[in-house]
């Protein structure tokens, strides 16, 4: 087996978030599905930006946020994703490297601009996302470095990768390399509408063993199995997946295997400021736990600690050392 | 007298802030003067960005922040400043317009990139700034629209405008138009090092009546009169300026005229998160008070309320409605 260089390597859309506060009336007027992620084209991106309030730019991207969380927990992370060689692309690359993550994917020199996600944060802390994929469309199988994948304990993939045309090939290539090297593959279902677009393919990935660990929130799980009944959905994923973590916001999460189901509570917090990144950071904690050989309850606890930090401020990346928070809670990372 | 369209029109460097947390050791290693603003060239900007941690991009610029504060207080503001037609330039223009400020200065299509300020925020909440002026260098007298200046109750200028080569001509042109239209002109001294660079010129502006209202913090005032004694400096500005507001952080401020000196306390706050914009927002409140005919104590109180909001979060622009905060404190804006 090749030398282990990373605890988690993530592959995802490389995106800069453009965050603004908005009220429910704004979402309604703009025809946005509260809490969801919509793919938008250039003209729609312009129109949304024109209409939205003063914004803050913070690097984002679901799997990228997760890997930054991995690094903040003191573990070794790498990220693969495509930006353009433009100002936002340089911003993305700077921020992820400055967070201690290895990021070696070369930027595109032609084609559309670096991806951005226009995020409306409502007073209840919920985020509603509109993604212009831009350069992230151009992630290709040849951006996958076999040595890097083989050197990662876990390769983590976001379901959103099913949207760009060639990224799913990159995804499948990476999963094959990982398994060939005796490593594990994890997938987040990303978003209920994303599941709606690719339900059959996601179920195949889970059932045929391309994916070893699945992350889903309640809405995504309901969408995957087209059921409104939570227990039905949980029983279905128990049969299909080797290991699944189902996040339920303030209700905590369930860790589900064929043998065992553990419910782990959410970390108590004072106030949700911005839910952006909650699922991403839960995955960070959980995966670091797996990479360090913790039992599944403690993996989920680490996830809950990381998620609690990120929802208490604007933006989807941690502002404080997650390693220190985790150690204060009794872990020794 | 032309119709009044704006309470305050600001002229300043149009800048996007790149904010990151840093510790004192980082400042020392980088040779940065804590709490100050240093002008940097392109290579130094690259080197600082490379060395600094993950950042957040938020539109800034001293006078621009002030005018956004004016709009947040429910008053009418306009801003004049130069960006380039690039991603950061579009970000700046979007954010200031989305805040309700009129911004009509055409962007530069050639020349250096939009200005950015690399800001290190230390754990004590102090900010240390490194400004790459870029396109802001190209503000010209012909960017000054005489009708707009004449339509503003107060034209507000930042001392930082003395740094770009032609901006001071724009500044002087605007001041002349304002006075010709029977309006008032205000100036912030901006920064102690900036005062050091242009002491004689700033004193001239104040003494010869080009400027009616002066904003200074303690360090800037000490620098202006080259004295370590606060009372000596206050007595000097009393003689030189018609009206001066001297801000003293948590000690509140002094409002100084030839006839009268009023000390006004700072608003109590829980914790300083990021001092960026404290002076800018004090000026916003104070100037709105002047434009609305409040007495000088209440002008200072409005300034203190606006400053208190902005230092309790990252970034130099208000996140909540200053009008609501002011009205809750008994004003009727």
Description:
Two copies of one chain form a homodimer. Chain A is built from twelve helices and 14 strands. With 333 residues, chain A is α/β, with parallel strands linked by helices. Chain A has a domain at 6-12 and 61-85 and 134-328: 3-Layer(aba) Sandwich (UDP-N-acetylmuramoyl-L-alanine:D-glutamate ligase). In chain A, a hairpin with a 5-residue loop joins strand 7 and strand 8 (127-132). In chain A, helix 10 (278-291) packs antiparallel against helix 11 (296-310). Chain A binds chain B through residues 20-21, 49-50, 52-59, 68, 86-88, 91, 94-96, 98-99, 113, 315, 317, 319, and chain B through 20-21, 49-50, 52-59, 68, 86-88, 91, 94-96, 98-99, 113, 315, 317, 319.
Order of helices and strands of chain A: EEHEHEHEHEEEHEHEHEHHEEEHHH
Mean pLDDT of chain A: 96
Helix content of chain A: 25-40%
Shape of chain A: globular
Which class do the helix and strand fractions of chain A yield?
alpha/beta
CATH topology of the domain at 6-12 and 61-85 and 134-328 in chain A: UDP-N-acetylmuramoyl-L-alanine:D-glutamate ligase
- Find the biggest chain interface: A-B, 26 and 26 residues
Largest sheet of chain A: 9 strands, mixed
Rounded to an integer, what's the Rg of chain A over CA atoms? 18 Å
In terms of DSSP E residues, the strand content of chain A is 15-25%
Report low-confidence residues of chain A grouped into runs of 5 or more. none
* Architecture (CATH level 2) name of the domain at 6-12 and 61-85 and 134-328 in chain A: 3-Layer(aba) Sandwich
CATH class of the domain at 6-12 and 61-85 and 134-328 in chain A: Alpha Beta
Strand order of the largest sheet of chain A: 6-5-1-9-10-11-12-13-14
Helix tally of chain A equals 12
């Amino acid at each position: 087996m090749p030398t282990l260089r990373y605890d988690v390597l993530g592959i995802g859309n490389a995106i800069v978030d453009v965050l603004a506060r908005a009220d429910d009336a704004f979402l309604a007027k703009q025809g946005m599905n509260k809490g969801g992620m919509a793919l938008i084209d250039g003209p729609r991106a312009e129109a949304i930006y024109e209409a939205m309030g003063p914004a803050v730019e913070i690097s984002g991207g679901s799997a990228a946020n997760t890997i930054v969380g991995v690094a903040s927990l003191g573990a070794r992370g790498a990220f693969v994703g495509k930006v353009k060689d433009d100002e936002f692309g340089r911003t993305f690359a700077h921020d992820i490297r400055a967070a201690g993550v290895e990021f070696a994917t070369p930027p595109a020199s032609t084609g559309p601009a670096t991806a951005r996600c226009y995020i409306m944060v409502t007073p209840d802390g919920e985020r509603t996302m509109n993604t212009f994929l831009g350069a992230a469309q151009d992630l290709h199988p040849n951006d996958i470095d076999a040595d890097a994948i083989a050197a990662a304990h876990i390769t983590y993939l976001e379901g959103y990768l099913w949207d760009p045309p060639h990224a799913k090939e990159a995804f499948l290539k990476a999963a094959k390399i990982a398994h060939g090297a005796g490593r594990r593959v994890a997938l987040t279902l990303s978003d209920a509408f994303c599941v709606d677009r690719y339900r059959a393919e996601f179920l195949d990935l889970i059932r045929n063993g391309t994916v070893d660990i699945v992350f889903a929130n309640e809405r995504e799980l309901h969408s995957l199995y087209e059921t409104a009944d939570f227990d039905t959905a949980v029983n279905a994923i128990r049969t299909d997946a080797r290991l699944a973590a189902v996040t339920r916001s303030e209700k905590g999460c369930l860790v589900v295997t064929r043998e065992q189901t553990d419910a782990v509570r959410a970390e108590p917090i004072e106030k949700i400021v911005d839910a952006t990144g909650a699922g991403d950071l839960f995955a960070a904690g959980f995966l670091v736990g797996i990479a360090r050989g913790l039992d599944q309850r403690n993996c989920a606890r680490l996830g809950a600690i990381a998620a609690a930090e990120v929802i208490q401020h604007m933006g989807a990346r941690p502002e404080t050392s997650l390693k220190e928070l985790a150690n204060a809670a009794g872990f020794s990372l």
